[in-house]
Amino acid sequence: MTERLAEADLGTPLGERATLLQFSSAFCAPCRATRRVLADVAGMVDGVAHVELDAEAHLDLVRRLNVVRTPTVLVLDASGAVVRRAAGLPRKADVIAALGTAIS
Length: 104
Description:
Blueprint: H1 7-10, E1 18-24, H2 29-44, E2 48-54, H3 59-64, E3 72-77, E4 82-87, H4 92-103
Parallel strand pairs: 1-2
Antiparallel strand pairs: 1-3, 3-4
């Protein structure tokens, strides 16, 4: 079964078309670079939100989603279903391609 997240899980509304959900930690340098990449992509595509969560502050969600390192990025479709996931610093082109999957 596909994991589905809601506004209540994230503490913020989902994007109208898709959401880029980033799990970060305080001392994670790749997390800062990931934040820039995802914010850039979200700014380029209408209806896409970038949500960054501190992994330590959301341990219940981290465990539920089996997040084992930061950064971990989940691409959610408009309904909150996880359609793609990746760990580590993503390339902008890969994020755009994953968004295409979520939006189509």
